[in-house]
């Protein structure tokens, strides 16, 4: 108990760090993932190729490797001077977007093709068909896998701790270095992670129930 | 009535002077299967053309090529004098002028009946919500489902859903309506309510291409019957001629099978 109470500011910093990394990456990953999924089902072949390349590359690369690229190569080649936080969010969100994309695409595939055909036959453009007809109906199926992806993202954000970001896993390292019993440190870190992941699954369960009613 | 020559039918067919839909030498393959073979077809303004034929004859595919839900391998399709555009905004614009009614209704499952009929008007025709609502209610009343406006499609019977689908297509004020086996997924007692709406449309002068197995509708509403088999147009005639005196053996065989019972 002492570990927690004596180091509350450190814990709080770690907790907020993890929360903020997760939230920012989740938001960007969701937007990117939906856009890339749109690319993958688009009638324009180059967009489809781009989407496929994006997913293949990011989904099959170890996240640590993406972090290394983001921290050591990206600043040299493109934009120097980005903060560790931004770089970590970039690595996390790009990586996660490939999983979001595939979940959304599988959701799109569960919507009867007749729905899209009817929309197209009314003269809707591809974007209208996707955003007004297909995606709203895909949402329900996508929620369950999306919850898992977001929980995985929360845990993946621990890697950012090794790349000069303040987050829970970094807090654990600091405390262990300070000589606290590692068992208790781990316990409180685990509790903090569970608070976040349980909130995420609770939120998604709520969404699932809400969307289950409409229709 | 004297029987007409098989090949020349297209040319003598009613009102060919004012063509709205023209298919010229259209070919399509599904893999090795040649589903549409050298299809020539003209539909004049105000004409009701019924396409019949055995399953797998290519009649549904033919119907779906007209608004490019199916692409074609070769040939030319024109609507109101303009060739069908490639995928993109131009095609979307053209599709708004071509109403389509599907075998499986395809009403938007997450939208109410009213929203189904207003969506195209507001998003494609850019009408105001009030104007779209008014028009939608008028059309829903006309097809007899005005009381169901606030329900979701799944709460309606098949016949009601199909009538909503017709209203949805009509809301775009199309130049031509395509019906792809509109009654094939319906319980027998619901077929008539849909056919009556279609009869009424035909009487009002809507240009229609109807793929169907309803011979009664073909007899009473069609200006012309097109009989397809194995990807080809085998015979084209007025309903009277076709049903009383079919010329091709394929059509005779088909009619003998379906009119027996």
UniProtKB/TrEMBL annotation, chain A:
Matching InterPro entries: AA_ABC_transptr_permease_3TM, ArtM/GltK/GlnP/TcyL/YhdX-like, MetI-like, MetI-like_sf
Location of the ABC transmembrane type-1 domain: 15-204
GO biological process entries: amino acid transport
Highest taxon listed in the record's lineage: Bacteria
GO molecular function: transmembrane transporter activity
GO cellular component, one term: ATP-binding cassette (ABC) transporter complex
Principal localisation: membrane
Any Pfam family the entry gives: BPD_transp_1
Compartments in which it is found: Cell membrane
The keyword Kinase is assigned to this record: no
Gene3D superfamilies, per database record: MetI-like (1.10.3720.10)
Segments crossing the lipid bilayer: 15-37, 49-73, 85-104, 183-207
Membrane topology: Multi-pass membrane protein
Keywords: Amino-acid transport, Cell membrane, Membrane, Transmembrane, Transmembrane helix, Transport
NCBIfam families with a match to the protein in the record: HEQRo_perm_3TM (TIGR01726)
Family in the record: Belongs to the binding-protein-dependent transport system permease family. HisMQ subfamily.
Protein name according to UniProt: Amino acid ABC transporter permease
């Amino acid at each position: 108990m002492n570990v927690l109470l004596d180091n509350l500011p450190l814990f709080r910093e770690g907790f907020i760090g993890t929360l903020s990394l997760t939230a920012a990456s989740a938001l960007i990953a969701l937007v990117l993932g939906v856009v890339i999924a749109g690319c993958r089902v688009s009638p324009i072949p180059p967009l489809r190729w781009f989407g496929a390349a994006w997913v293949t590359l990011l989904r099959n690369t170890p996240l640590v490797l993406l972090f290394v690229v983001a921290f050591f190569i990206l600043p040299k080649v493109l934009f120097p001077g980005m903060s560790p936080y931004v770089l970590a969010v970039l690595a996390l969100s790009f990586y996660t977007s490939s999983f979001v994309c595939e979940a959304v695409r599988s959701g799109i595939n569960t919507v009867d093709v007749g729905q899209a055909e009817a929309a197209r036959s009314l003269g809707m453009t591809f974007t209208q068909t996707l955003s007004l007809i297909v995606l709203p109906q895909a949402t329900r199926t996508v929620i369950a896998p999306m919850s898992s992806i977001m929980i995985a993202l929360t845990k993946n954000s621990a890697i950012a701790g090794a790349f000069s970001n303040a987050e829970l896993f970094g807090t654990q390292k600091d405390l262990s270095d300070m000589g606290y019993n590692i068992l208790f440190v781990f316990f409180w870190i685990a509790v903090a992670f569970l608070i976040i992941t349980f909130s995420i699954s609770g939120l998604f369960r709520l969404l699932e129930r809400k969307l289950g009613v409409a229709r | 009535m004297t029987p007409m020559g098989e090949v020349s039918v297209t040319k003598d067919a009613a009102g060919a002077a004012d063509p709205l839909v023209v298919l010229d030498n259209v070919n399509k393959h599904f893999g090795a299967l040649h589903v549409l073979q050298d299809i020539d077809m003209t539909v004049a303004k105000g004409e009701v053309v019924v396409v019949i034929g055995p399953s797998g004859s290519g009649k549904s595919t033919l119907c779906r090529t007209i608004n490019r839900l199916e692409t074609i391998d070769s040939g030319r399709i024109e609507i109101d004098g303009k060739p069908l555009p490639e995928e993109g905004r131009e095609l979307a614009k053209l599709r708004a002028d071509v109403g389509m009614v599907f075998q499986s209704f395809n009403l938007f499952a997450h939208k109410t009946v009213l929203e189904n009929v207003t969506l195209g008007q507001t998003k494609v025709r850019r009408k105001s919500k009030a104007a779209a609502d008014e028009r939608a209610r008028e059309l829903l009343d006309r097809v007899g489902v005005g009381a169901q406006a606030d329900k979701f499609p799944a709460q309606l019977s098949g016949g009601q859903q199909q009538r909503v689908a017709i209203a949805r297509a009509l809301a775009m004020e199309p130049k031509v309506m395509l019906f792809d086996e509109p009654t094939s997924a319906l319980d027998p007692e619901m077929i008539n309510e849909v056919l009556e709406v279609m009869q009424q449309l035909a009487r009002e002068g809507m240009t229609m291409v109807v793929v169907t197995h309803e011979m009664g509708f073909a007899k009473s509403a069609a200006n012309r019957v097109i009989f397809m088999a194995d990807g080809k147009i085998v015979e084209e005639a007025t309903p009277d001629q076709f049903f009383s005196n079919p010329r091709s053996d394929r059509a005779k065989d088909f009619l003998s099978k379906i009119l027996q019972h």
